[in-house]
Every structure is written in C-alpha cells, then in structure tokens.
Write a structure and sequence with these properties.
The complex is a heterodimer of chains A (188) and B (236).
Chain A lengths: L1 H21 L1 H29 L5 E3 L14 E5 L10 E4 L8 E10 L5 E6 L23 E9 L4 H8 L2 H16 L4
Helix pairs in contact in A: 1-4, 2-4
Chain B lengths: L1 H10 L17 H5 L13 H19 L7 H22 L8 H26 L2 E4 L12 E6 L6 E8 L2 H6 L7 E7 L12 H16 L20
Antiparallel strand pairs in B: 1-2, 2-3, 3-4
Classes of the chains: A alpha+beta (188), B alpha+beta (236).
Chain lengths: 188, 236
C-alpha cells in the first residue's frame, strides 16, 4: 500500500518535472522562485548577524553543563552588541582554532588599563572552571572570543538541529524533498 | 481519501455517481481517431492542482486554438527583478570578507534584497491579482488592445470563473469609465472532471474557445463586474 503510494507520488512528480523542462520560461521562474525562498532564509540569518553583531546569533545547547538553566537541545538567542560584559552574564564563546562554541557563565573578570578584559568562565553544572578547556597555556579569555550574551531561549526546539547533525544524511533528504516540492508546485 | 472523493462527487453532482464507472463518454472518441488520448488525472480534492490544470488549459487554448500570442513583458520584469535580488543576496552570502568587517556590506545587500522582494510581492498583489495571462492584440480582427485573462476558483466551491477583458480595463475602471468591456463565464468543475479526476481537456478547450468567440464578436457581459466568482451561471 505505502510503496504504491510513494511510487504514485514519484510518478506524478516526474510528470511535473518533465512538463517543467519542456517550458524553459516556467522552469526559470520556478528555479528563481526556489532561489528566492532559500535566499530569504539566508538573508534573515545575515540580518540577525547584522543586528546582533554576533557571528552566530542563534545556537543550540549541546551539553548539560549549564543545567538547570539550560538543557541539551535548547535554542539560545545571542546578542553581541554590548561590549561590556559583567560577572554572572551567560555568554557563548569560542576557543581559538576550535569549532564548537560553548555556553557558560562569566566567573571572574579583570579590566586591564587599556580597556580590554581578561575573562574566566565556568559552567553552572561543572565542578571546576573552564581553564582546562582553554588552549594549552591560555589562562584567560578575551572579549573577542565571545560570540554574544544569551538573551532568550526556546526549550528543546534545538533537538531537530542535533538530530540533523548526528545524522547528516537527514539534511540532504530534507532539503531534497523541499526543493522538489517547491519546483513542482505552482501556487503563484 | 475515499471519503474526500465521495464528498467531491456529491458536490460535483452532474457526473455519474458510481466510483467504479469508466471515465466519461468523451473518451470514446479515440476509437474513431485511431489514437489513444491520455487523459490527465488530478486529485480532485487538491484545489490548487485543479485550478492549475484549468489555468494551463485556458492559456494553451487561447494560444493554439484562438491563435493569440502571449505578452511576456510583465513576466520578464518579474524574472529580472528576481535575478537581481538573488544577485544581491548572493553577494551578501558569499562575499569573501569575514564577519565583523562585512557588516556594512551585509546591511546594504540584505536591505536591497528585501526591498526588491517586497516590490515583487506588491506586483503580485496589485498588478497581477487574478490574471494568468496577457496577450498581444489579436491581429486577425485588427484589434488595438491585447487581452487580460483572469481566473477565479474560490476555495470551497466547485465553480471556476474565467474572465476575458482588455488589458487596460483596470486603468479605465479607475478613471471611472463605464461600461467596461469584458466577457465572463462560470462553470462547475464537475463539467470537466469526472469522479476519478480525469480531465476533459478537449471539452474545456471548446468551452474556452466559445468564450473568446463571444469576446471577438463584442458580445460583452453587462452585469456589474463584481468578479467574485460567485456567478452561478452554469453552462454545459
């Protein structure tokens, strides 16, 4: 029953695609339409980057080191527009030459005479501060390492991102299906 | 799905009620023409698809049977706008300048992208509205103005309305010129789709051609052209 339905949908989509290929004007319109949908999403992301001044304005919490405040799978909204952070702020930072950002709280802060900061962070749920995580020989973070302060959160919504990351093939399946349906549907 | 089909077949009343019956009588023609005409099949519950099939047939009828030429000017404008918007978005996305430095570029390109995107949407809402095609003037009858072809298929009804008017009718209406010249006709989609969703393209082609004939002969409809699609003139 189900394989027959899938084959049916597949056949119908193939007919639509063949029709599309025959009419180049319509094909161009649908391709540009799809591109605009993709670009709209990208531009919204870039817009968020612009407004928050943060490299990564929305992140997903990957570990439980900030429980009970944040759980694995939470989405965090960041804002990097404040150059002056304080002890107690929840910040997301990246250690130089490492990919994965970390969300922890500022434990200690030293302001140097030239106005720059030395920062030490620690996860609420961890026993020790983050010195063990920093690069070898690094004792303090600087303001540049910080991607932003956490300003808002959505519980568990980030689980989808975690699934897509753990099983990358899901990404291609999802985008492929969405692309196919947009190309072959003509609601405009 | 069976429930939906049954419901639609009740609404579409006119066609045979038994779901097991063969496609409508028009299909018997192939035997005399010695070829098999493949009928397009649509899920009759998918109103978007139904309108799409009807719209496409209107366009192809007017172009092939009625010998009109499509005017692609507005379509080209839209395509160019889309391409330009995508170009700006691509620059914002792929420019090799790292983050904090490229903020001004992001701001400018992103804003331009959204402005063009907004313009496109406004065009769709206020210029296109319900029109599916604009044509060049019909040379065979020495027309000076092209056609604007509009269709309406409201969400929960079975009635599809086709309206043919001159391409400048909207401007004339704004200037308050009455009566405005148009023809319109409403059909129950049950006239052209059977219970299983097989589409009678030939029959619809004839129906559309008849509407254009009326337009050519200037037998304009004089009712108030409230184009709501609720016109219950059922023609067979």
């Amino acid at each position: 029953m189900i394989p027959a339905m899938i084959k049916d949908i597949y056949d119908k989509q193939m007919i639509e695609l063949k029709k599309l290929w025959a009419n180049k004007r319509q094909l161009t319109y649908q391709v540009l339409n799809l591109a605009m949908i993709v670009f709209s999403a990208l531009m919204i992301w870039k817009g968020l980057m612009f407004i928050t001044k943060s490299e990564s304005p929305v992140v997903v919490v990957l570990s439980g080191s900030m429980e009970p405040a944040f759980q694995r799978g939470d989405i965090l909204f960041l804002d990097n527009s404040n150059p002056h952070v304080k002890v107690g702020d929840v910040v997301v930072f990246k250690i130089k030459d490492r990919d994965i950002p970390i969300v922890h709280r500022i434990l200690k802060l030293h302001e140097k005479p030239d106005g720059s900061y030395d920062l030490l962070t620690k996860g609420d749920n961890n026993r020790v501060d983050d010195r063990g995580l920093y690069a070898p020989g690094q004792l303090w973070l600087s303001r540049d390492d910080i991607l932003g302060q956490a300003r808002g959160t959505l519980r568990y919504v980030g689980m989808v991102t975690i699934a897509l990351n753990d099983y990358p093939v899901l990404k291609y399946v999802l985008v492929g299906m969405m692309g196919l349906f947009v190309l072959t549907s003509k609601e405009g | 799905k069976a429930v939906v089909h049954h419901y639609i077949s009740i609404i579409m009343g006119k066609k045979k009620s038994s779901p097991k019956e063969e496609p409508p009588a028009e299909v018997e023609k192939p035997e005399t023409e010695e070829s098999v005409i493949e009928l397009h099949q649509v899920d009759t519950g998918d109103i978007i698809k139904v309108k799409q099939v009807l719209d496409e047939t209107v366009v192809s009828t007017l172009i092939t049977t009625c010998d009109l030429k499509e005017n692609h000017r507005l379509g080209n404008i839209k395509l160019i706008l889309m391409a330009v918007a995508c170009a700006f978005a691509a620059v914002a996305q792929f420019a090799p300048v790292p983050f904090p430095e490229n903020r001004p570029l992001l701001g400018v390109c992103g804003t331009i992208y959204f402005i063009i995107s907004g313009i496109l949407q406004l065009i769709l809402w206020f210029v296109d509205e319900d029109a599916i095609m604009i044509t060049y003037p019909d040379e065979s009858i020495k027309e000076t103005k092209g056609l604007r072809v509009r269709t309406v298929f409201p969400r929960y009804t079975e009635f599809f309305t086709l309206m043919l008017e001159y391409e400048d009718n909207k401007e004339l209406k704004k200037k308050g010129q009455k009566p405005v010249e148009f023809v319109k006709e409403t059909w129950s989609v049950g006239n052209f789709f059977d219970v299983d969703g097989y589409f009678d393209a030939a029959g619809f082609d004839k129906a559309v051609a008849r509407v254009y004939e009326r337009f050519k002969k200037k037998q304009f409809d004089v009712e108030d052209d409230e184009f709501t699609g609720n016109n219950k003139q059922k023609k067979d």
